[in-house]
Structure formats: structure tokens, C-alpha cells
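Protein modeling request. Please complete all fields; requests missing the sequence field cannot be processed.
Requester role: graduate student
Desired output: 3D structure, C-alpha cell encoding
Chains: 1
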Amino acid sequence: MERDRTSIHGRLPAVDPLTDRSILLARLARTYERALSRFFQRRVTVQADVPDLVQDVYVRLSRMVDPAAIEKPEHFLFVTAANVLKDRARRDAVRGAGLHDEIDESLAGSEISPDRVLESREAADRLQAVLIELPERTRDVFVLRVLEGLRMADVARAIGISTRAAEKHQAKALARVTEALEDWRHR
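Delivered output (187 residues):
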């Protein structure tokens, strides 16, 4: 037999604490969602994290035994928001957030494996370091000939040296680059 949902005095419907709690939480969410979003937008660099941070505040609020007992809801919510940021920063520090390379979405679906892409980037970085170490004229010859694809006679003319001198600089640069990349591959 179902019990009548009236108060002891029989006049007013009994209050369902779960419904009241849900109504209170929904009202707080509607009232403070924009303010909490602005709070987080000013304090984080990744704007896509803002909805998650706002949600974390509501999760903490929903775990309270009696959210109706909050005397200053705005103060409580913003102190909670500050604590959410602190906890996120601690968690990111432990996980080493920011120390990892982001996945390049432009390569999604590519036939090239992420390991191969990483290896190529490391090789490019090594090539750049080797080129910086080369004498300026040798570097210029290498860049014009190999990277820009000029003919050797055009390279020599652009730099103002003989074709034979440009060829010697090219040979020197190629030898150094080859040596450096071989050393890098065998590390």
C-alpha cells in the first residue's frame, strides 16, 4: 500500500529532499555559470578546459551533504573554483603537463607513423644545429644548392666565388651533415 505524501498535519505536501536539492543545485548552476566561466577564462591558457573546470565546481557542490546550508553561495563557489584551479595545477605538475609534444592533428589518418614523424623532426633539428656550426659561406652554399635547388654555377654567382670554390664548400658541408646525421642515428 502506498503511503500518502502529506505532512504530519495532513495539509501540505511532504517535501522531497532530493527534489529540493536538485532544484537548488540547478538554480546555483544557472545563476553562476557565466561568472564561473569568466573566472576560469581569465586564469587558464587552454580555453577548451573552461567547461570542465566549471563542471568540477558543480561536482564538488553536488557532493556536499546539505548545499542549502551555504550562507554565501557566491563566496563558496568562487573559493571552490580557486581550489579547482589549484588542484588542476598540482595534477598537471605531477603528470608533467606541458612537457609533452601535442599530437599534430594535420597528420591524423596519415600513413606516416607518429614515431617516424618524431624521428624526422629530431633529424631536422640536428640538421639545423649542424648548419649553424658551419662557416657562413659553406652554410650559404649548402642552403642555396641543396635546400633551394639552385644550380652550382648560380650558387657561385650569387655568393661571388668561383664554381670550383662553391663545389668545395658544398663537399665540406655534405661531409659534415652526413657525419652528424650518422652519429645521431647510431646514438
